[in-house]
Write a structure and sequence with these properties.
- By secondary structure, chain A is α/β, with parallel strands linked by helices.
- Helices cover about 50% and strands about 10% of the residues of chain A.
- Chain B is an all-alpha fold and about 300 residues long.
- Helices cover about 75% and strands about 0% of the residues of chain B.
- Chain B contains 14 helices and no strands.
- The longest helix of chain B is centred in the last third of the chain and has 36 residues.
- At the A-B interface, helix 1, helix 3, helix 12 and helix 13 of A face helix 2, helix 5, helix 6 and helix 13 of B.
Chain lengths: ~525, ~300
C-alpha cells in the first residue's frame, strides 16, 4: 500500500515535470501552431457548401452565433448601449450578436499575444504594423480570407480598392481588411507662431532655420525652454532629426540608413560622418540650453510642454496631434498661436499611411469566420452600423451641424466621444464626420495630397528571430551610451561616439545589420521597389 | 523608584530619535508631494514641477475624478468584495489544509505536502494558466476569477501547517478526541482558537495579496465595472504613457480622456487614502502575529 502510494506520487510528479517542461518549450511555438493547424482547412469547406443559398449575404446564417470582437485600448462608457443597438441590427441581418472586448493599454502586447496564441475564441481582431501584423500573419495566426471575401463580404471586397488588397498581402495571401481612409502621420515642425511674430524670427522649414528660431526664443524668452523634449531620445529626437535632414525611407532600425530615392542602398548611419554631424548639432543645442539639462529624466509628453507654455517648439509631430494642440491652446490661451510646417514640404516625402496601418483580421482560432467577415462588412459599409460605432447615438452623443460633427457635452461627460471605440480600422471616408476644428488637418492633408508619394517601407516585415539576443543587448547599449550622446550631455562627442560604436559592435551590431540588410534587399527585390 | 539613566543611554536615545525622525521624514516626503500635487493646477506642475506647497491652488483634479465617481466606486467595491471574500474563504481552506497536513495520523500527509510544495518549484507558466482559465474553466469576466486563483497559496499553506504544528501539541488533539470531539470540532474549537496569531499573519498576507492584485484583472476582465482598484489606477497611467509614446506614428488622437498630472495624483490619494488610515489600526495585529510566531520558533 505504502509502496503503491509512493509509486503513484512519483509518477504524478514526473508527469508534472514533463508537462511543465513541455509547456516551456511549446510556448514560443504556441503562437505559430495552436489554432492555425486545425482551422484553416475546415473554414473554406464550410463556405463552399452553402454558396448562393442565401442571396442576402451568400453565407449560411441559420445558426445563431456570438462573435468575439477584440480591439485595443479602453472601451467607452456607453459601450453596452452601443453593443445592444448593434446586436439588434446584427441579429436581424446576420443572425449573430457581437461582444465588443477591449484589451486596455496595460500590457496590450502581451494580451494580444495570448489572444492569438491560446486558441481562445476570437473572431475579429485589430491589426497594424505596430502590432506586428506581418510577423503574426507569417506565423499563421490569422486566417487567409482571399476565398472568403467574395462569398461572405462581396460589398466590402469591391469597396476596398484592389491595390490596397494587394498591399496587405503577406506571402501572397490576404490576412486583414485594410482601412480605406487616407491620412498622413508624417512629422512636421510645431512652434509658437505668436512668439515668432513678436520677435521677428524665421519660419522653421529645415534644421538651420529651426535652430535660429530656438536661438531667438532663448534670447527673448529666458523663462521658456525653446525645445520640448523628453527622455524618449530615439523616437522624439534622433528619428525626427533624421526624418528632416536625411530623407529616410522610414524609421529604419539598428543604426542603418536608407534614403527614399535609393531603396537598394543601405548605409551604416551610426558612426558615420553624418551621424557625427547630427550629434554635434544636438550637442550645440544642449550647450545653448535649447533643451533642459535633465532631459533624460523628463517624462511629460511633448505636447503638454507646449500647451502649458513651458516650451516653445517641437521638433516633429503629425498633423492630427498638432491640431489637438491647437484646440487645447485655443481653449486655454486664446492669445497664443501655433505654427506648423510639414517635413514633406521640405523633403518631398509625403507618404500616406500604408494600408496595413489599420486593419481587422480573423484569427485562425475563429469558428465563425464567414459570419465575422460579413459582420465586419456591415461595420464598414452599412451607414447605420458605421455611424453608431464611430460617433455614438445622434442626438445623445453628437449632433451634425452644417455637415460638421459636434460633440454634446465634453469628453468627460459624454459617454461616447468621437471615435471612442478606437474605430480607426473601420473608418469609411464616405460616412466620416469631422469636427470643425479638424479643417486645419484636412488643409494640411490636401497640401500633402498634391505631392504624395508611396510608402515603400511599412510593408516590410522584419523577422528578427535570428538575432533576438543581439537585438536586446543592442537596445541596452543604445540606452546607456547613445542616449546621453543624443541628448548632448557627453563632452567629447567624437570619443563618445567611438565608445558607443565599440560597445554596439560587441553587442552584435554587425550581425544584426547584415541580417537586416539581407532581408530588406530581398523584400525590395520581391516587391520590385525602386 | 527610578533607575538612573547613564549618559551613554541618553546619547543613544538622542541619536536613535534623530535617525528615526529623518527616516520617517524621508518616507513621508513623497507622500506630501503627492498630496500637494493633487491640489495644484495641472499646468503649473508641468511648467514648474512638483512643489511641497502648491504654487497655483486648484481642486480640478478631485473635481474630474468625482464628476463621474462611478468607475472609482465600482473598482473600490470590487476590491473590497474580493478582499473580504477571498481572505475569509482562503483562510478557511488553508487552515483546514494546514491542520490536516500536520496530523500525524494522516497517512499520506507527506505525499500531499510534497505535491503542494512541488507546484512552487515547477509551474506551467503563463500561457497554460491563461488557457486553463479562459478555455476550460471559462471564468473570463467573472468575480470568481479574481478570487479563485489566490485561494490556495502553497507558501501560506506550509506556513500554516508549521504554525499549527508548533501551536497545537498532539496531546491536546488526543485528549479532545477522548472527550468525544469529532475531527471538525477539534479543528474549529481547538486548533483555530490556538492558532489565532498564525491566522492573523496568513490572513494579512492574503488580504494584502487581494488588495494589491491587478494582474488577474488585466488578463481576464474586459468589463470595466469589474476592474480591481489597483488595475483601474494602473490602467489610467498606462493609457497615458502609451498614448504619449506610441501616438506619433500611429495617428492616435491625443484629444480626449487623458488624465492630467493633478488628476492622477488626486486619484492616487483617493485610492490609497483609506488604507493609509486603516493601516495603523491593523498593524498592531500584524506585528503581534509575527512576533508570537517568532518566539515560538
Amino acid at each position: 500500500m505504502r509502496k503503491a502510494a509512493k509509486a503513484v506520487a512519483l509518477l504524478l510528479s514526473i508527469i508534472l515535470i514533463v508537462s511543465s517542461l513541455a509547456a516551456c518549450s511549446t510556448k514560443n511555438e504556441g503562437n505559430k501552431g495552436t489554432g492555425a493547424t486545425a482551422k484553416p482547412t475546415d473554414a473554406p469547406k464550410a463556405t463552399d457548401a452553402p454558396n448562393g443559398e442565401e442571396p442576402k449575404t451568400g453565407i449560411d446564417t441559420s445558426k445563431r452565433v456570438e462573435l468575439q470582437f477584440y480591439m485595443l485600448g479602453n472601451a467607452p462608457k456607453d459601450i453596452d448601449f452601443i453593443q445592444s443597438e448593434i446586436n439588434k441590427m446584427a441579429l436581424e441581418d446576420l443572425n449573430a450578436t457581437v461582444k465588443f472586448n477591449y484589451t486596455t493599454w496595460t500590457d496590450w502586447d502581451q494580451k494580444y499575444k495570448l489572444l492569438l496564441g491560446s486558441g481562445q475564441q476570437v473572431d475579429l481582431i485589430f491589426t497594424a504594423e505596430w502590432t506586428q501584423y506581418q510577423s503574426y500573419a507569417k506565423r499563421g495566426a490569422f486566417l487567409p480570407i482571399d476565398d472568403l471575401l467574395p462569398v461572405a463580404a462581396p460589398v466590402l471586397n469591391d469597396f476596398v480598392p484592389a491595390d490596397m488588397w494587394e498591399a496587405v498581402k503577406i506571402d501572397g495571401k490576404i490576412y486583414t481588411v485594410p482601412a480605406t481612409y487616407k491620412e498622413y502621420v508624417t512629422d512636421g515642425f510645431v512652434w509658437r507662431e505668436d512668439l515668432r511674430k513678436k520677435y521677428d524670427l524665421p519660419t522653421p522649414v529645415d534644421i538651420p532655420t529651426f535652430e535660429q528660431y530656438l536661438e531667438g526664443i532663448k534670447k527673448n524668452e529666458p523663462d521658456m525652454v525653446p525645445l520640448s523634449m523628453n527622455s524618449d531620445m530615439k523616437t522624439n529626437l534622433s528619428d525626427r532629426l533624421r526624418g528632416i535632414s536625411h530623407d529616410p525611407i522610414g524609421a529604419v532600425g539598428y543604426g542603418l540608413g536608407i534614403r527614399y530615392e535609393s531603396p537598394t542602398d543601405v548605409y551604416p548611419y551610426w558612426g558615420s560622418e553624418e551621424h557625427l554631424n547630427d550629434l554635434v548639432t544636438l550637442k550645440r543645442w544642449q550647450d545653448n540650453n535649447y533643451m533642459v539639462k535633465n532631459v533624460l529624466s523628463v517624462k511629460d509628453t511633448l505636447q503638454d510642454q507646449i500647451t502649458s507654455g513651458k516650451a516653445a517648439a517641437l521638433l516633429g509631430d503629425n498633423p492630427t496631434r498638432y491640431n489637438d494642440m491647437v484646440i487645447k491652446i485655443q481653449a486655454a490661451h486664446p492669445d497664443w498661436e501655433l505654427g506648423y510646417h510639414p517635413f514633406p514640404m521640405t523633403n518631398g516625402i509625403a507618404t500616406p499611411v500604408h494600408p496595413i496601418h489599420n486593419g481587422f483580421a480573423i484569427p485562425a482560432s475563429s469558428n465563425n469566420a464567414e459570419r465575422a467577415l460579413a459582420f465586419y462588412e456591415k461595420m464598414v459599409t452599412d451607414k447605420r452600423y458605421n455611424l453608431l460605432t464611430q460617433y455614438g447615438v445622434e442626438g445623445k452623443n453628437y449632433e451634425v451641424k452644417d455637415g460638421y460633427y459636434t460633440m454634446i457635452g465634453d469628453s468627460n461627460s459624454n459617454g461616447f466621444p468621437r471615435e471612442a471605440m478606437n474605430g480607426w480600422a473601420w473608418r469609411n471616408p464616405e460616412y466620416m464626420l469631422f469636427d470643425k476644428n479638424y479643417d486645419g488637418v484636412k488643409k494640411i492633408f490636401d497640401e500633402l495630397d498634391k505631392i504624395q508619394v508611396p510608402d515603400k517601407f511599412t510593408g516590410f516585415a522584419e523577422d528578427y528571430s535570428g538575432y533576438q539576443a543581439e537585438r536586446a543587448a543592442l537596445e541596452q547599449v543604445e540606452k546607456q551610451y547613445l542616449y546621453p550622446l543624443t541628448a548632448g550631455l557627453v563632452k567629447d562627442v567624437e570619443k563618445g561616439l567611438k565608445e558607443f560604436m565599440d560597445k554596439a559592435k560587441a553587442a552584435g551590431l554587425e550581425k544584426i545589420q547584415q541580417e537586416y540588410t539581407k532581408q530588406w534587399l530581398q523584400y525590395v527585390q520581391e516587391q520590385g521597389i525602386k | 523608584m527610578k533607575i538612573k539613566e547613564d549618559s551613554y543611554m541618553k546619547g543613544f536615545r538622542i541619536v536613535a530619535v534623530i535617525v528615526i525622525v529623518c527616516a520617517s521624514l524621508a518616507c513621508l516626503f513623497p507622500f506630501l508631494l503627492i498630496i500637494s500635487a493633487s491640489f495644484t493646477q495641472n499646468e503649473s506642475i508641468i511648467r514648474e514641477g512638483y512643489k511641497l506647497v502648491p504654487s497655483v491652488f486648484s481642486m480640478e483634479g478631485y473635481r474630474t475624478v468625482f464628476q463621474f465617481p462611478k468607475q472609482v466606486l465600482d473598482a473600490y467595491s470590487v476590491t473590497v468584495f474580493t478582499t473580504i471574500v477571498g481572505t475569509t474563504l482562503g483562510l478557511f481552506l488553508m487552515t483546514m489544509a494546514g491542520y490536516v497536513l500536520q496530523r500525524r495520523d494522516f497517512k499520506y500527509r507527506n505525499i500531499f505536502s510534497f505535491f503542494i510544495y512541488f507546484t512552487t518549484l515547477f509551474g506551467g507558466g503563463l500561457v497554460p494558466w491563461y488557457i486553463l482559465i479562459t478555455k476550460y474553466l471559462k471564468l473570463t469576466d467573472t468575480l470568481t476569477v479574481l478570487i479563485y486563483p489566490g485561494l490556495m497559496t502553497p507558501f501560506l499553506i506550509i506556513l500554516m501547517k508549521n504554525f499549527i504544528r508548533s501551536a497545537v501539541p498532539d496531546e491536546v488533539v488526543e485528549s479532545a478526541k477522548i472527550d468525544g470531539a469529532n475531527d471538525f470540532t477539534i479543528y474549529s474549537r481547538i486548533v483555530l482558537q490556538l492558532s489565532m496569531p498564525g491566522i492573523a499573519t496568513v490572513g494579512l498576507f492574503l488580504a494584502l495579496h487581494y488588495w494589491n492584485d491587478w494582474f488577474t484583472s488585466s488578463l481576464f476582465i474586459n468589463d470595466t465595472s469589474k476592474y480591481q482598484l489597483q488595475y483601474y489606477l494602473y490602467n489610467v497611467i498606462n493609457t497615458m504613457s502609451f498614448i504619449a509614446g506610441m501616438g506619433a506614428g500611429t495617428g492616435i488622437s491625443l484629444g480626449q480622456e487623458l488624465p492630467t498630472e493633478s488628476t492622477k495624483m488626486a486619484m492616487s490619494i483617493i485610492v490609497t487614502g483609506p488604507i493609509l488610515l486603516l493601516y495603523p489600526f491593523v498593524q498592531r495585529y500584524f506585528v503581534k502575529g509575527l512576533t508570537i510566531g517568532a518566539v515560538k520558533g
